Amino acid sequence: MNRVAVTGMGIISPIGKDVGSFWQGLTHAQCGIGPLTRFDTTGYKVTIAAEVKGFNPADHGLDPAEARRMDLYTQYAMAAAHQAMGQSGLVGQVAPERLGVNISSGIGGIETFFRESEKLLSRGPGRVSPLCIPMMIGNMAAGNVAIRYNAQGACVPLVTACATSTHSVGEAYRQIRHGYLDAVITGGSEASVNPIAIAGFTSCMALSEVNEPLASSLPFDLNRKGFVLGEGAAVLVLENLAHAKARGTAILAEVVGYGSTCDAYHITAPEPTGDGATRAIRLALEEAGEAGLDSLYINAHGTGTPLNDKTETQSIKNALGEGRARRAAISSIKGATGHMLGAAGGAELIATILALKEGVLPPTIPLITPDPACDLDYVPRAARADQRVLGISISLGFGGHNGVLAVRRGE
Fold this sequence. Notes:
Layout: E1 4-12, H1 19-27, E2 34-35, E3 48-49, H2 64-67, H3 72-88, E4 99-104, H4 110-123, H5 132-136, H6 140-149, H7 164-177, E5 183-190, H8 195-203, H9 213-216, E6 232-240, H10 241-246, E7 253-262, H11 275-288, E8 296-299, H12 306-320, H13 322-327, E9 329-331, H14 334-337, H15 344-358, E10 360-361, E11 384-385, E12 390-397, E13 401-409
Parallel strand pairs: 4-5, 8-9, 8-12
Antiparallel strand pairs: 1-6, 1-7, 2-3, 5-6, 7-13, 10-11, 12-13
Helix pairs in contact: 3-6, 7-15, 11-12
């Protein structure tokens, strides 16, 4: 089996449009949640979101004419891929047929869908753009990235709601580990801060209706009432470790385990015992091996919904045992970024890698009143200097999809 390295990372997020500013925002407890600016929220119960502010495609290698032919979720993915590939130095260093792309979206081009539907209803079918379908469909971020980097290997975007980018990275890890590819550009992207998404998530009682930024997204807090919609993209370059070493590039981290399971229980609610998430954690850690289990950092899914946080806490205890669970340091970054949906797992994996690399654990903000049912160490409110050996990132999606990735510090 091949070992798998991370050699590049890129991110567009509500707290930073590159990895450096993202990490600065996380470790300084910056909150990217604020009043919605994309549309008039009159009549909406939810009037806040975690928007990406000041995004200019031209700052990230995209020609303005090219960008106009892409939905915003694809623009975000292209920008994050530009960063990740630039850091990796992989361009021209891998055979095209040995380079793959696994970049996915939980929802795809919903902004294009919403805009073109408005045209259809108000102006008739002849006014719908010929680019409607190519901009809207959920594989176009991956397709455009593959075109940009001449990636002729497998290009396999997949959709598992909030676990989308975790599964994308996990499947890329397996493609390299089993020798099908030498490198994969992988992650997720989402741009769904628009009227239909806000209305839809509100109607299914998933969103917090507390319209105060620092009181709205409260992972593991007794007063949590739902998640806050976020957006952005997170892309990583995974590479055969031997291939990366041969070309002398820096190894940011090593992916050492992956677990994927399904609750097979309910379309939105987690299975009450947390068995599916427990099994996914165990699978990832079994593949990673015993080393570091007593020095573990966990980036939790931690949405701030009443059911998720309680069930996830129990899953961690079930998977690790009470003693190791209490020695683990855990945080959720969704108080800072909101819930980036299909991009969340990728962003949280980048946060996990940086926590190990820098010896600093990002905080759970603003965790003020711990829930007695969530009684582990969630690194409340402020970042903590703490050198951990092993990290896992947990993602749990609507439909019962569970994904867990395990990583170690780079060599």
